[in-house]
Design a protein that fits this description.
The complex is a heterodimer of chains A (about 30) and B (about 170).
Chain A: E1 14-18, E2 20-31
Chain B: E1 3-13, E2 22-27, H1 35-45, E3 49-55, E4 63-68, E5 73-74, H2 78-91, E6 100-105, E7 108-117, E8 120-128, E9 132-137, H3 140-146, E10 160-164
Parallel strand pairs in B: 2-3, 4-6
Antiparallel strand pairs in B: 1-2, 3-4, 4-5, 6-7, 7-8, 9-10
The chains are: A mainly beta (about 30), B alpha+beta (about 170).
Chain lengths: ~30, ~170
């Protein structure tokens, strides 16, 4: 991610990138 | 007594190691949950953020997604978008090989570019709104004093501006 500042270079786009890993899964059972 | 079941995935974001990075819980099929219940679930789980995915609300997005911290809902945030992208790819909601995806966040449509490697999602890029610069602050020492994370001598510039990416409404 790049961040500019007032009066600085004009920003054309801002992107955030990354990876992710799976850890676990489950099911939530909600009683009405 | 009726029981509603909601699946969730636990992911670690901004890392390639399990039990590293930022924790995230993703409910990939959250239809039927009220915003109040979403908030209660996010508080109960206690991760920095929990996301809830439902059907798209318009033709310009693939899904609707809401992001909750334990305390409130966020209109947009980076790590939940990146992590949810991986969760939905694992679930198959995002078809293998697809290179673009659009989340309908509270802030609006938010596109994600996907990079695949070996049949798996390898990297995700979220494009976010351009920053909106607010008032400029000249008193760096006062800013550093207000933040426990900034030491005055570590301040990289002599002028700071309030900057918003739309993460706070």
């Amino acid at each position: 991610m790049s961040i500019g500042s007032p009066g600085g270079p004009e920003i054309s786009s801002v992107r955030v990138g990354g990876t992710s890993v799976f850890v676990a899964k489950g099911t939530m059972e909600l009683e009405d | 007594m009726a029981i509603s079941r909601y699946r969730y995935l636990h992911c670690d974001v901004f890392t390639d190691r399990r039990f590293g990075g930022n924790q995230l819980a993703v409910f990939p099929q959250a239809a039927g949950l009220s915003a109040h219940t979403m908030q209660q679930i996010a508080r109960e789980i206690g991760f920095a953020e929990t996301t809830f995915v439902t059907a798209a609300e318009g033709p310009d997005t693939d899904v609707r997604m809401r992001i909750f911290t334990p305390g409130n809902e966020l209109p947009m945030a980076g790590h939940p978008v990146v992590g949810s992208t991986f969760a939905l790819a694992r679930e198959g909601s995002i078809a293998r090989g697809r290179t673009d995806w659009v989340f309908g966040l509270t802030i609006g449509p938010t596109p994600v570019a996907l990079e695949w490697a070996g049949g798996r999602l390898g990297f995700a890029w979220m494009t976010q709104r351009l920053p909106e610069f607010g008032r400029v602050f000249d008193d760096v020492a006062a800013i550093a004093k207000a933040s426990s994370r900034i030491r005055p001598r570590a301040a990289p510039a002599d002028r700071w501006a309030r900057t918003s990416y739309g993460t706070r409404s």
